[in-house]
């Protein structure tokens, strides 16, 4: 958890970030490249992770995040508005931190230290003073959201979001005041200045940087602008227990007691399938991963020009770890450069001059080793990171090659067989399918526990809990607990901040031992919708060492292809949940945009957006039930609205290609410290006591998703609608439609019969609710609605000939 003090707790977290990791021979400590194409990670030295830590970076807006992604910076899936921009967290070594500072980025301390807060405030104040002068026109305020909610120890918080018509002017300042309950005066509960939120240079709305802690639950709030605008709005409750008797039936939970590696998780799922054969099916996914394996390597030298490294042709566990190599000084004058092989021992006798001094350069040694047929069967030699290798090498004793993998023998080095546990009383495709999947990113250790806990609860409560029985009887549930098993093994045993899989696409010039923690593909950037290959931002297509490397092509990775195979093979899958960490988010598509003009993937329609919001209230209330954690309204919504652009992510893949309603959890919500008045971030791998609590509460959320899915599957109720006039003035009347449940409304204004080709009620704007429709003369409005489950209002047949659609005349003064 983040701290602003000097307690021992920050040190405990930093200790988690620097698990020991040794090299056979240490890599030279060269500075990272400082070109604008990449900031390539260099995260290894003898016995340490080179000071790698989880650091805070403050950028002005999301265009800054896009640039960090383009540079290949290893960003956490965490975005937090601060007073002078946006705070993101990144995994950085000291060299990487300095490289970013040299590019003008504001790289601050580790998340356990917030000593630079005052400086951030001063910078923001200076920016406001330097902004364009106000135009003087009175602005119009549109209140987007106003809610109070409780979290953890029943602390009450306030969240307000407001759009100003003058918001593009950076000097526009909004102030919110609220009462302390029904019948009390505005201002009696408190007053706070709101922050202006911009994205990619475009004004979005004003909001609080963090929810404001308050002492009383407000009923009304007034927002005023320094440009003269004012608006008063009712403050409503956000979240609340959706179940009247959550403890009425016997219910067992809490089936995880430690962080688990993918081998353990898969064994657990295999055991569940054997124990509950009548309710489960274990599915072997068709594409095995590359495996938890690496070629063995050794490196010789201390300076770039005189360094050479060798890589085994076979994987370490298949014989590469048995190879040795030595660089010998022959001890005589005018000796030639020679290479000899005895078994798996490669010996290089270096060339000398007339005085007996070694003259062999790194390039000459590499060429000689590669030219020797016997040596070439065992290994290849390279100069350091594309260096010309003109420096003279130094003699070195017999050095074993090693793959440097530290996992115990219980973790296989062979390609991994990913397995899905299918849970359901009727697993024949006749029931609505739900896909729950976890740990696309290796370092997110809590997430597989969420999937494990969810599966255990479903199976072990089936016999006793009526609610669980309904879920399992009425749904077809697919749970993939670890999408990225190779990377997860590597994260647990070798480099805890590993994000990607272990497939190395780097050429020899970028594949020395010092880069071994920087290889792999980001699985959640490898999908085929809104990908970097199509021009969307949030991934790298060129830097094999970028932590958002999308791979050589869309769906290049077996892990991503396995997901696609599953949803294609079982087309009854209609809903999904992708669990990540950390930060406490609940999100849905669209999840990517192009930088120029912030061109977002097509937004979901009004009815689907309403369904997402309505469902979120229920699902997040289930999360809150466990220990009171509330996911903030400001961290709930489409990915591009509340986080950043994530090109080629899996939720977009499933939604845009197959219409699967997909959500994303980011477990690990910030924890409020009443002593400091601050929210503390928990990180990827909190102490297990905290990780356990996160797994429990978000398993609650998964059960909530399944309850929502069951309601979707069994929904036979037709929506009801009403036409509502919202504004009349001479010559114009504005109206909209209200619906009894999330539904799309199709309408006509020309007296014709409405069909699916008719205009559809749209959203007024991002997070603004439905549009108002304006007519300038008396108009007959015809319409019908259809909900997310396909129920049409009044059994109307849009493709038929019936006239049982809704009709109402709208008059104009």
TrEMBL record:
InterPro entries: GH29D-like_dom, Peptidase_M14. Its cofactor is Zn(2+). One of its GO terms (molecular function) is zinc ion binding. Residues 377-709 form the Peptidase M14 domain. It is an enzyme of class 3 (hydrolase). GO terms for cellular component: extracellular space. GO terms for biological process: proteolysis. It holds the Pfam family CHB_HEX_C_1. The keyword Protease applies. Keywords: Carboxypeptidase, Hydrolase, Metal-binding, Metalloprotease, Protease, Signal, Zinc. It comes from the Bacteria. Residues 1-31 form the signal peptide. It catalyses: Releases a C-terminal residue, which may be hydrophobic or positively charged. Its EC number is 3.4.17.18. Belongs to the peptidase M14 family. Carboxypeptidase that possesses the specificities of both mammalian Cpase A and B. Thus shows broad substrate specificity, being able to cleave Cbz-Gly-Leu, Cbz-Gly-Val, Cbz-Gly-Phe, Cbz-Gly-Lys and Bz-Gly-Arg in vitro. This is Zinc carboxypeptidase. It comes from Micromonospora terminaliae. The lineage of its organism: Bacteria, Bacillati, Actinomycetota, Actinomycetes, Micromonosporales.
């Amino acid at each position: 958890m983040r701290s602003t003090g000097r307690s021992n707790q920050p040190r405990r977290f930093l200790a988690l970030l620097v698990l020991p990791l040794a090299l056979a021979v240490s890599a030279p400590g060269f500075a990272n490249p400082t070109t604008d194409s990449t900031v390539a990670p260099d995260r290894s030295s003898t016995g340490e992770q080179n000071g790698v830590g989880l650091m805070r970076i403050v950028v002005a807006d999301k265009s800054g995040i896009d640039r960090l992604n383009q540079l290949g910076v290893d960003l956490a899936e965490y975005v937090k508005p601060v007073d002078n921009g946006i705070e993101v967290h990144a995994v950085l070594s000291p060299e990487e931190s300095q490289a970013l500072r040299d590019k003008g980025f504001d790289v601050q301390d580790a998340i356990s230290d917030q000593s630079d807060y005052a400086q951030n405030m001063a910078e923001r104040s200076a920016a406001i003073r330097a902004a364009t002068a106000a135009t003087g026109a009175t602005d119009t305020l549109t209140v987007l959201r106003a809610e109070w909610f409780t979290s953890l120890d029943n602390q009450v918080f306030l969240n307000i979001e407001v759009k100003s018509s003058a918001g593009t002017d950076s000097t526009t300042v909004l102030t919110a005041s609220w009462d302390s309950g029904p019948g009390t005066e505005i201002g009696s509960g408190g007053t706070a200045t709101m922050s202006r939120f911009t994205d990619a240079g475009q004004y979005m709305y004003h909001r609080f940087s963090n929810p404001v802690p308050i002492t009383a639950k407000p009923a009304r709030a007034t927002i005023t602008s320094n440009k003269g605008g004012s608006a008063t709005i009712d403050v409503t409750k956000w979240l609340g227990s959706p179940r009247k008797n959550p403890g009425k039936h016997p219910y067992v939970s809490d089936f995880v007691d430690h962080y688990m590696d993918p081998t353990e998780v898969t064994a657990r799922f295999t055991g569940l399938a054997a124990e509950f054969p009548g309710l489960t099916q274990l599915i072997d996914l068709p594409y095995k991963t590359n495996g938890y394996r690496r070629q063995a390597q050794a490196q010789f030298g201390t300076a770039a020009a005189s360094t050479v490294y060798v890589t085994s042709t076979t994987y370490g566990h298949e014989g590469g770890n048995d190879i040795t190599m030595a660089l010998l000084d022959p001890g005589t004058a005018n000796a030639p450069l020679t290479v000899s092989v005895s078994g798996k021992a490669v010996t290089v006798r270096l060339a000398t001059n007339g005085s007996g001094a070694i003259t062999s350069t790194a390039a000459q040694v590499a060429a000689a080793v590669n030219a020797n047929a016997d040596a070439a069967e065992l290994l290849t030699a390279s100069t350091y990171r594309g260096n010309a290798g003109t420096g003279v090498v130094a003699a070195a004793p017999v050095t074993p090659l090693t793959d440097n993998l530290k996992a115990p023998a219980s973790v296989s080095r062979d390609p991994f067989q990913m397995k899905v546990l299918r849970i359901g009383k009727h697993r024949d495709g006749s029931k609505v399918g739900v896909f729950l999947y976890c740990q696309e990113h290796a370092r997110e250790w809590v997430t597989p526990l969420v999937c494990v806990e969810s599966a255990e609860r479903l199976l072990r409560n089936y016999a006793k809990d009526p609610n669980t029985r309904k879920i399992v009887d009425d749904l077809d549930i697919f749970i993939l607990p670890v999408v990225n098993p190779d990377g997860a093994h590597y994260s647990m045993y070798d480099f805890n901040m590993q994000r990607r899989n272990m497939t190395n696409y780097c050429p020899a010039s970028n594949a020395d031992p010092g880069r071994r923690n920087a290889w792999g593909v980001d699985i959640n950037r490898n999908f085929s919708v809104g990908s970097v290959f199509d021009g969307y931002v949030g991934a790298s297509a060129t830097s094999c060492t970028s932590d958002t490397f999308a791979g050589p092509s869309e769906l290049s990775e077996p892990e991503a292809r396995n997901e696609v195979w599953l949803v294609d093979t079982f087309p009854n899958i209609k809903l999904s949940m992708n669990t990540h960490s950390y930060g406490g988010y609940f999100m849905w598509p669209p999840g990517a945009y192009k930088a120029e003009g912030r061109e977002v993937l097509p937004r979901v329609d009004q009815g689907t957006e309403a369904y997402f919001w309505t469902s979120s209230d229920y699902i997040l209330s289930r999360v809150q039930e466990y220990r009171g954690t509330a996911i903030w309204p400001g961290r709930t919504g489409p990915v591009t609205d509340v986080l950043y652009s994530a090109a080629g992510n899996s939720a977009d893949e499933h939604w845009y290609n197959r219409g699967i309603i997909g959500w994303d959890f980011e477990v690990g919500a910030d924890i409020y410290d009443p002593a400091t008045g601050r929210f503390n971030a928990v990180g990827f791998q909190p102490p297990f006591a905290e990780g356990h609590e996160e797994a429990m509460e978000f398993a609650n959320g998964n059960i909530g998703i399944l309850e929502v899915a069951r309601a979707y599957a069994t929904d036979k109720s037709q929506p009801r609608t009403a036409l509502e006039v919202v504004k009349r003035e001479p010559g114009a009347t504005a109206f909209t439609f209200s619906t009894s449940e999330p539904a799309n409304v199709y309408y006509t204004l020309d007296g014709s019969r409405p069909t699916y080709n008719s205009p559809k009620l749209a959203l007024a704007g991002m997070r603004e609710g439905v549009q108002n429709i304006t007519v300038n003369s008396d108009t007959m409005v015809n319409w019908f609605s259809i909900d997310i489950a396909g129920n049409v209002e009044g059994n109307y047949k849009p493709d038929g000939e019936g006239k049982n659609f809704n009709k109402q005349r709208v008059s104009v003064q």
